[in-house]
Structure formats: C-alpha cells, structure tokens
Write a structure and sequence with these properties.
heterodimer; A: about 775 residues; Immunoglobulin-like; Maltoporin, Chain A; 22-stranded antiparallel barrel; B: about 325 residues; 6-stranded antiparallel β-sheet; disordered N terminus
C-alpha cells in the first residue's frame, strides 16, 4: 500500500508541476441543448490554437484558460449534436453559455474529427451511451434497456438469459456501482431481472467505467455505471406515450420558468396484470397469479440565480407478485414485492470562474417483503423482510486552475442501515416475532482528490486518491485507494493507456440466483466478514482509423479480489432459516485476467461496434472445492458482441445485435451411487404392494456425485436480435413504430441444466419472440 | 403451514411462470465426465455384524441398476489388527461374523481388480443415555396427540452427535396383484409389519433445525426423519430435556418407540450433508421444481479412493407404553 501511495504522490506532484502556466483569462460557463435547454455533460471543449481542452462536468459546466487579447477558436462538440465553433477574443474572465443543436440530419457526415475519439480520452475502458444509442438497440419485448446495451461492450458479461445482471471483468453483479443522478441503486431488477429499473425515456446518458475508474467513485470493485436523468425541456411542454408488449410509458416535461427551469415526469407501468386478472376471473381458476411493476422518475431543476441552481431528483419503483390458491377449506396467498426509492437534492454553486461546487443530500433504499397467509381452520401468517437504506451528504468541488488541469475533490458521509433478515410469524397457536438478525448501522466517510492534467502534447493523466473510513459496530476499516490513469499519445491517431486502481467495498450481496428474484440480501462488512478489496491494472492500445470513422482498441486487464464471499456448500436462502447469514457464507479470493478488443464505426449509414473478450475468472475458497481454485460461475472464455445500426433514410432505422458467449461453468452430478438412508427403520416397500416408494427414503439409494466446482461447461450461448424503427413526423410531434424480433433463429440457449428421469436436460427460456413498440410524442 | 416451504413453493411458481415460455431438451453428457468408481457402504454398529456392500457407481444419465461387486477381497480390521478377509460375495455384500464394540476403531481394506485399494475407518461411539417418556393426550396438539419427552443424561458421555426419531409399528395388509382376469394368477394377500415415522414437532432449542420447517398451524417446528440434537446447544447443558409431540395419529394397536443413535463424526457429517442434498435438489421426484435457490450440495464420504460411507453408530431403542 505504501508503494501505491508513493506512486500516487509522484503522479499528483507531476500534475502540479505541469500546472506552471502563463497568466490567462478564463472562459467558463455551460453547454446546453439548444432545443431543450438541457445541460450537456461530458461535452468536449477545446481550444484549437492551443491544442488543449476540457470536458463539461456532470452539470454541463466548463472552464478553460485563454491567452488574453488574442483571437482564439473554441470548439464545443459532443455525440449527437452539431459541433459549435466560436472565435473569441477575451481580455477578462467571461461567463458563457454555449448552445449545441441536435444532429437532425442523421445521414449527414458530421465532422467526426471534432469529437473526442477514444484514443484521446485519458481514461481507459470508459464508454458513454446516449439515450439515442440505447433506444436503437433491439430489445426483448420491445423494452429498450440501458443495462442490456452495456452487455454489448467488451469485458461485460450478462448473467442469465434475458436478464440485466452485469458481470464486469470477472466481477460479480454487486461489485458494480450503479448510480442514478449520483445516488446508488441497490436493486436494478424489474420483472425478475428481465428489465432494468431504468426507463429510457428519463435517461440522458450512461457513463460506464471499467478500467480507469476515477477517484471520485468509490465503494465498489468492478465498475461504475453512472446514469444521468434528463433535466426536462426548458422551452416547451412535451408529452410522450409509449406502448410495448409488457408496459406502457408516459412522459411529461416542460419549463417552470422558460429557458431557466424545468421539470420531467416519467411513469412506466406494466399492464400484464390487466390481462391476467380478467382471464383468471373468467376461467374461475383456483390459482390466480398477478404480477405488476411500476416506476416513476421525477426531476426538477430551478435556477436560483446565475450562480446557483437547484436539482431535485426522485425515483420510486416497485414490483409485486400476488398468488392466490384456493383449496377445499381455505385459501393460501403469497405476496412478493420489492422496490427502490432514491431521492436527491443537489445545489450547484459557482464560486468563481475556476471553482464549481455541488452539495448533495440523498436517500436511497431497497427492500423486499415475502408474505404468506394461509386461511384454513386456523390462520397462519408469515412475513419475511429485508432491506438496506442510506442517508448521505456529499460536497464536490470542480476546480479549473488551468486549461490543462482539472481538479476534482470532495467529501461525503453516508449512514447505512442494513436489515438483512427479519421474519415475523403469526399462527393460531403462537404469536412469534422472530429476528435472526437485528438491523445493523454503519457509517462510511469518504474524501477524494483527483487531478486530470496534460504534460506537453503527448502525455495526459488522471491521478487521484479516494480515502474511505467505515465503521460498523466495534469494527472500523480505513482504505486509501489510489487511482492512476495515463495516456501517452504515440501519434495523432493512436495512444497507449495504462490504468491502476485499488478498490474497497464494504457491502456484500448474498444472492443465490442471478435471475433477479427478490431475494437479494445486502449485508455489511463485519468482524467476521471483512471488506472486499481489489487491485486492477490494465494496459490498452487505442487507434483511430480513416479520419476517426473507425476506432479500434485492444486492452488487457488483470485484477485480483480479496474477501469475496460465496454461500457455503449446501446453504440456501430457503433452508436453515435459523442460521445467520455470516454462518451461511465463506470468504475467499478471486482473480480475473482478460483481453478486450473493440472496433467501432461512428459515421455513415452503418454504425455500430464489434467487441470480443477473451477472459478467465476464478475464485478460491478454503472451504469450497477442497481449497482448489475454480472458475467463477459466469466465467465465459470467449464473448463476442456485435451491434449494427443502419439508417437507410432520415426516419427509418434497422438495427441488429448478435451475441456469442462460450458456455458458463456448472457443477453437476457426474455419477450416481448407492448411499445409506438416514432412517435406520423405515423401509420402502416398492414392488410388494400398492405402496409407492416414499421419495425421501428412496432418495438416498441414488446419490449424486458432484463434479469439482464449476468444471462442467454449459453449451454456448448465442443469439441474434433485429429491430426496425420508423419515425413519422405528424402535424404535432411524431409517431414511432419499432418492430423487433428477439432470438431470430430461435436458438435454445441454456438457462438451467438438470437431471430428470436419468437424463441430463437443458431448460431454455426464450425462443423467437417478436414484439412491437408504439410511441407518440407531441 | 411452513413459511419457508411455502416461500419455496411460491418461488417455484415464479419460475414455473417463466418456464411456461421456455422449452426443454435433452443434453448429452460427455463420455469423459463419468469415471467408474467403487462404492462402499457400511454402518458398523454393535447390533449387527461387520458388513460392507460394494457396488460400482453409474453414469447419472443411465437407467441401469446397481450391480454388487462379487469379485472383491475385503479385509476387516479392529484397532489396526486384521480380523479376517472375505472375498467373492455373491451379491456384493461382504460380512464378517464379529459385532463391533463401542470405543473400538473398525476399518475396511477393499481390493477390486482394476481399481485402487479402498480404505475407510471409523470408531464406534458410546450408546446414548436417553430416557423416553410419553405423557397424556394434549388437545392443543394435532390429533390431540400426547406430549413426549427425550431426556439425555450426560450428553458429553457420548462425545458424538445424537440423532433420534419416534416411530410406530403396525400390521399392514398388502396385496400382490395377480393377472387382470384373476384366472391365471390370483391376487395374493399378505400381512407384514410396517414401521412409520410419526413426524416430530418441537420447539426445543436443543434440536438442530437444519431439516425442519415451521408448521404455522401447530406453532412448532416439524422435523425430518431423524432429528438431530445440536451438539452446540448442549454445551451449557449436558443433560438436555427435549419436549415434543407428533404429527401423525397413533392407533391403539400401534407399538410406539423412540430410536436414538450416537453417530460418529464422519457418519454425522454424511447424514447431514445427504439430507441437505435432498432438501436442495432442484427438482422433486415428480419433476416439479423444488428449490431454485439452493447451492450444489456434495455428500460427504470418508472412503479413500472410492465413494460411499463407512459410518459408525450406536443405537438405543425405547418402547413407549
């Protein structure tokens, strides 16, 4: 760790030395969408004459230094907007708002050289997806999804078929920091994970970090998925209504004070229950199952003054499954429901042309409840709940000491409350409140500093330190986490990138399944189960070809993880309810190595990318697999993803995706053998009479010999999806039809493998599924 | 009703809903996955002579039946001294006319042509000191069943986990069907003694609840057969008293008894792991989903170079009046 800190100090001081610049004047301000007046994050602002530049921050703010009294050209660009060139001469610091116009002519050859190609970005393994990119990606049941689009990127593996679970560079799903307007979201699943909670109507863009993760992010080991909600149109009121096979969506946005403040409200709700409930009533079935989900995104921004702006973001969403079974003398009801709430108030304050501040106060929670009620002669009720909630306060400063130098620093304090397992049982005979685990409170304090700078024309870096303190009970953890990202430009078209990061995670996720069932338990690091730690290094080569029309990259990574957890052999969420979670898990280590290839085509009628990842991910636990290392459950050696988008006219788009993942590892029985029945007295009578062998007693006649952990490989997964999108301008707004086909050639991909009647069988979930989506906005 | 069990059922319903959409196909198990091994199963105890059954393991995707290994040579040992050798047992069951004694270590050394030598050993624990009692009927119990009590005296004496169950025996009339017309071979009626587990219900803190579920209607935990006394819970009380009742109805003609046994550490581990494997199976015997959340559960074996279990125990049967 000492070496890591020394390395950090070296690069940090290097950045400070590099800051010795001549006196300048500063142009600072915001970049906004000219049509909607929404601020644009991560827009590139460069000074052509000085070959320098910066990017807007999350709130669209930038600040660059210019040589006084000299005509200079400022170029502002970002994906999806026309590039703006400003020729300016300044004698003093100036506040400026730059408006970018959306690329309305989609076939137009834009000046791609003005975009920031990947080889010029400091951070390796960084991707930004816009809402437009996401909406053009073919999707299951027509519901476009940000997280499923991320699954097309190199180094990202999906979990089970059709689900939104992400395994990044050999990590587990809980190791991804998923933020919605800066607030962590603990459960991303709708509809058992087949949809994510992110409604694309409300999303502005998604920033995805998996290599060089800047110091401002902390608390997770593998990646950061930073989802920004749209601000809402500041000019006009817009309404959008959408209908897909599973849900309907409604969006309403508009100005509060024209050109200054706005709001956005987006609601999504499934209508599956509206279909299934009448069917059950008409059929007079004894079994009724009703599933529903909804989510609401609300955002409000209000300009208090030119230097102060207030943002309020709120998300709430919930899923619920109700099953009712009628039997002779009574009824049995099950209710599962789970959901998240996030709420954040942010106050932007511009101190001066070089210092931008943001205060955030946020709340997030995830909880689920499983309820069971049986009404017979007697009544029985049980209720099982679990949850996590955080209150957090955070202050961030963006400091722009020079055009080549961007400093970010901040502090935060978070109060976590974990309620991992609370069960209440009430029956005719007894009233029991049973709490295997009391709620656990923890405090997490974080301070970070991060410096992005350039030295000369070839070398740029992002160097930072994230220091965290975590207190739970009598146990405390302190983890300084240095982060270094370096970019060395070999020429104007190619560069080498290196990243190193140390990461600490104080949360663990207990999950038996990756299919998004509402049974995930978030638990805190404790005396017995320490914080997860990780080190990652990556080295990449980035090249742009044909005037930036193509970007190619190859990046290798290696990461090791300490204190990762797995369920002990035989443990289950459903069994041994009297055993605390710490006794159900075991602590071990993990390592992952891989190499990622990416080819992107950014312009022309055909756009898209092809990614290939060759990787290996292992875990080792002294209590599992006799202490021998075994493949991680989503270790897939080869992953190929292709996404193509063909725009054959202004309003007609054809898209397709193709995935290939080599088989994931499984542990299955490789032999069966005679055992001994636990009961020494009760015998099965089999053929002798009308009695069937009792399942329990006969089970032990045929025990399974499990293979070494995860040594068997499931068949490969591959799939092709296509979609066609047609936009028709109307008198007022436009109408959009999207027709899609999921799994075009109806591949039977493995979802589960199991033995049944002396045969190994594979269950496949989704055959070919056509879908449509209708949208109307006005 | 069982909350956890019902959650499992509801979980199964969720998956079942998903399954409605999907399809199933048979997958070939690669030939190199299966390795034929010798399976040795024996439970040395003072109530029977030393015996081990030898079979071969089978591919998991075959319907073939287990065949006893008839050409093996088995050496039985007591505290490291060879008692004798037995070879070529016709049905694969190799027995030596010696009843094990508590406190002694018994081992087997098995040689099967074409396989590595198999070895296993285990020590016979002391018999449990238990007193079983039956009390008057209790209208609060299912079927107004009586309350029962198992009193363990000096638990530390056995130094091994104790398992127990409550059973009844009764005469049952069976029929072996003849031909459909009854003319060629008529139905054969016969009587035999059937032993049934009575289903143990208890909230005793001394019982290990790993194979139990909470029965909401009785307000007690319902245990599988047999129940395990949790050695950890007896650390502070070496003379635990376990109170319980039963699920099933007792008839007048039934003989009710408890069967308690002290299991060696290895046998205890085998029993617990095999029962957990049963609980964690993905599908039940009818092919319906049982537990979608379970982790793979290997069954413990103490057989070196083979499979199975050589697990020692010492039992006590107590008839309840």
């Amino acid at each position: 760790m000492l070496k890591q800190i020394q390395l950090f100090l070296f690069f940090f001081l290097l950045g400070i030395v590099a800051n010795a610049q001549q006196k300048k004047v500063y142009v600072h301000g915001y970049v906004e969408d000219a049509e909607k007046r929404e601020r644009i994050a991560k827009a590139n602002v460069s000074i052509v004459d000085q070959k320098m530049g910066t990017q807007t921050n999350t709130y669209g703010f930038f600040s660059v230094g210019l040589i006084p009294n000299q005509r200079q050209t400022l170029v502002i660009s970002t994906v999806g907007f026309k590039t703006e060139r400003l020729s300016i001469t300044l004698s003093k610091d100036t506040l400026l708002t730059v408006f970018l116009f959306p690329e309305s002519q989609q076939l137009e050859e834009v000046e791609v050289k003005d975009k920031v190609p990947p080889h010029e970005q400091v951070l390796g393994g960084f991707h930004q997806l816009s809402a437009k990119t996401i909406e053009k990606t073919p999707a299951l049941l027509g519901e476009t999804d940000a997280l499923k689009t991320l699954q097309l990127l190199p180094g990202v593996q999906n979990g089970k078929e059709g689900t939104v679970g992400l395994n990044v560079r050999g990590g587990s799903p809980d190791q991804n920091l998923i933020l919605l307007d800066g607030v962590p979201v603990y459960n991303i699943n709708h509809l058992f994970g087949f949809l994510s909670i992110f409604n694309n109507d409300a999303i502005a863009n998604v920033d995805f970090y998996k290599g060089g993760i800047p110091a401002r992010y902390g608390g997770r080991l593998s990646s950061v998925i930073d989802v920004s909600m749209r601000e809402g149109n500041k000019k006009t009121y817009n309404t959008k209504i959408s209908l897909s096979p599973v849900a309907s969506r409604f969006l309403f946005e508009g100005p509060i004070v024209k050109d200054k403040s706005s709001f956005l409200l987006s609601i999504r709700r499934t209508w599956l229950d509206a279909l299934t409930t009448p069917i059950a009533v008409i059929s007079k079935s004894d079994f009724r199952s009703v599933f529903k989900f909804y989510d609401v995104n609300f955002k409000l921004n209000y300009a208090l003054s030119p230097k102060n702006k207030l943002y309020v973001s709120y998300y709430t969403g919930r899923d619920g499954l109700n099953n009712t079974i009628k039997f002779n003398d009574g009824t049995s009801r099950y209710n599962y429901n789970w959901g998240n709430n996030t709420f954040v108030v942010r106050w932007n304050h511009l101190y001066n042309q070089r210092i931008f501040g943001n205060l955030s106060v946020s709340y997030t929670n995830f909880d689920y409840t499983l309820q069971n009620e049986v009404k017979e002669v007697k009544t029985f009720q049980s209720r099982f709940t679990s949850g996590i909630r955080d209150w957090s306060i955070r202050y961030d400063w963006d400091i722009f000491p020079s055009a080549n130098h961007t400093l970010k620093t901040g502090i935060s304090a978070t109060a976590h409350r974990f309620s991992p397992e609370i069960q209440q049982i009430k029956s005719g005979q007894s009233d029991t409140i049973y709490k295997p685990q009391n709620s656990i409170d923890a405090v997490e304090l974080v301070a970070y500093v991060e410096d992005e700078f350039k030295i000369g024309a070839k070398f740029s870096a992002n160097v930072g330190l994230n220091a965290s303190f975590y207190q739970v009970g009598q146990r405390s953890f302190i983890n300084p986490q240095p982060r270094v990202s370096l970019n060395y430009a070999l020429s104007e078209r190619n560069s080498l990138k290196f990243s190193y990061g140390h990461f600490a995670q104080y949360l663990h996720l207990l999950s038996n399944s990756s299919i998004g069932l509402p049974t995930d338990l978030w638990v805190s690091a404790t005396e017995r189960i320490p914080a997860q730690l990780s080190n990652q290094v990556s080295l990449g080569y980035y090249q742009s070809l044909f005037e930036n029309r193509f970007n190619v990259s190859i990046e290798g990574f290696r990461r090791n993880m300490q204190n990762v957890i797995e369920y002990r052999e035989g443990a289950s969420f459903l069994n041994s309810s009297t055993v605390g979670w710490e006794d159900k898990v075991t602590v071990g280590e993990g390592k992952a190595t891989g190499i990622e290839f990416l080819v992107q085509k950014n312009t022309g009628k055909w756009k898209g990318w092809l990614s290939y990842t060759l990787s290996k991910s292992e875990r080792i636990f002294s209590d599992l697999n006799r202490g021998v290392a075994f493949p991680y459950k989503y270790d897939s050696r080869h992953n190929i993803a292709l996404t193509l988008n063909y725009e054959w006219s202004k309003n007609k788009t054809f898209s397709c995706n193709f995935f290939y993942n080599s088989g994931i590892p499984l542990q299955i029985s490789t032999a069966k053998f005679n055992g001994v029945s636990p009961s020494r007295l009760v015998k099965t009578v089999g053929f002798l009479g009308p009695y069937r062998p009792d399942e329990y007693y006969s089970y032990f006649n045929e025990l399974g010999l499990l293979s070494d952990r995860n040594t068997f490989r499931a068949p490969a997964y591959h799939r092709l999806d296509v979609s066609y999108r047609s936009v028709k301008p109307m008198k007022n707004g436009n109408r959009v039809w999207t027709l899609g086909v999921y799994n075009v050639y109806s591949r039977n991909n493995p979802f589960y493998l199991y033995y049944d009647k002396n045969q190994l069988k594979q269950f496949s979930l989704f055959p070919i599924i056509p879908s449509f989506t209708y949208e109307r906005n006005f | 009703m069982n909350a956890i069990f019902e959650m499992s059922k509801a979980g199964a319903i969720i998956i079942a809903l998903l399954f409605l959409q999907g399809c199933v196909k048979t997958v070939d198990l690669p030939d190199n996955v299966f390795k034929k091994q010798v399976v040795a199963v024996g439970t040395p105890n003072p109530d029977s002579v030393l015996s081990v059954r030898l079979t071969y393991s089978l591919r998991p995707d075959t319907a073939a039946v287990y065949q006893g290994i008839t050409n093996a040579e088995v050496s039985f040992m007591e505290d490291g001294v060879v008692l004798g050798k037995v070879s070529n047992a016709p049905k694969g069951v190799y027995s030596f006319n010696k009843r094990p004694v508590a406190g002694k270590r018994y081992a087997i050394r098995v040689n099967v042509p074409g396989f590595d030598e198999i070895y296993a050993e285990d020590s016979i624990p002391q018999a449990p000191r238990v007193i079983s009692s039956k009390f008057a009927s209790n209208p609060n119990n299912p079927n107004s069943s009586p309350d029962f009590e198992l009193r363990i005296t000096n638990y530390a004496f056995t130094q091994t986990p104790i398992w127990f169950g409550i059973y009844s025996t009764r005469k049952v009339r069976g029929v072996k069907p003849g031909s459909p017309t009854g003319e060629v071979t008529p139905d054969i009626f016969y009587e035999y003694i059937s032993t049934a587990n009575l289903g143990l219900l208890s909230n005793s803190q001394y019982l290990d609840r790993f194979n139990s579920f909470f029965d909401g209607l009785s307000g007690k935990y319902s245990f599988g057969d047999p129940a395990r006394v949790d050695p950890v819970s007896t650390t502070f009380d070496p003379n635990p008293v376990i109170r319980y009742t039963i699920v099933n109805q007792i008839k007048k003609e039934d003989q009710v008894f408890t069967y308690s046994f002290a299991a060696s550490a290895g046998y205890d581990r085998y029993l617990k792991s095999s029962i957990m494997a049963y609980q964690n199976r993905l599908l039940d015997a009818s092919g319906a989903l049982n537990n979608p959340f379970a982790e793979p559960t290997p069954v413990y074996s103490n057989i070196k170079n083979g499979l199975g279990i050589w697990g020692a125990y010492n039992a006590k049967r107590t008839v309840l009046q």
